[in-house]
Design brief:
The protein is mainly alpha-helical. Helix content is about 70%, strand content about 5%. The protein has a two-stranded antiparallel ribbon with strand order 1-2. A hairpin with a 2-residue loop joins strand 1 (about 25) and strand 2. Helix 3 packs antiparallel against helix 5 (about 85-115).
Length: about 120
């Protein structure tokens, strides 16, 4: 399974897999960078926690701002983010992305069921 992860996970995530922006464990690089690792952890955490507490859509949208800001500042200036900051902002973004997707699914369900009632 590990070779599959190292081949397909970067393609699925669209990750650049830069060595200096990735975590290492026992001398082996993670299959994706720190930011993508955070996003995947955030998505997984949201899928588990959404059954107990789903943040409002506006809160989820605000949670995406730190990663966008960090990436934009890093792109436009000489600032270099740390892997810790990347994983935290990636986690927030992944959680928020999944929460917004769940909100859209719920909204679509309610809209569809209301439409069906009118038939």
């Amino acid at each position: 399974m590990i070779p599959w992860l190292y081949k397909w996970l970067p393609i699925i995530c669209g990750c650049h897999c830069r060595d200096d922006r990735s975590f290492h464990y026992h001398g082996r690089k993670f299959p994706v960078c720190a930011r993508c690792t955070g996003e995947l952890l955030g998505i997984a955490f949201c899928l588990v926690s959404c059954f107990f507490c789903l943040p409002p859509a506006w809160v989820a949208a605000l949670a995406m701002v730190p990663m966008v800001a960090d990436g934009t500042v890093q792109l436009l200036t000489r600032y270099e983010s740390t892997n810790f900051r990347r994983v935290v902002t990636g986690f927030l973004f992944g959680y928020a992305l999944c929460a917004l997707a769940i909100h859209l699914i719920i909204l679509g369900y309610h809209h569809g069921s209301n439409w069906a009632k009118r038939l």
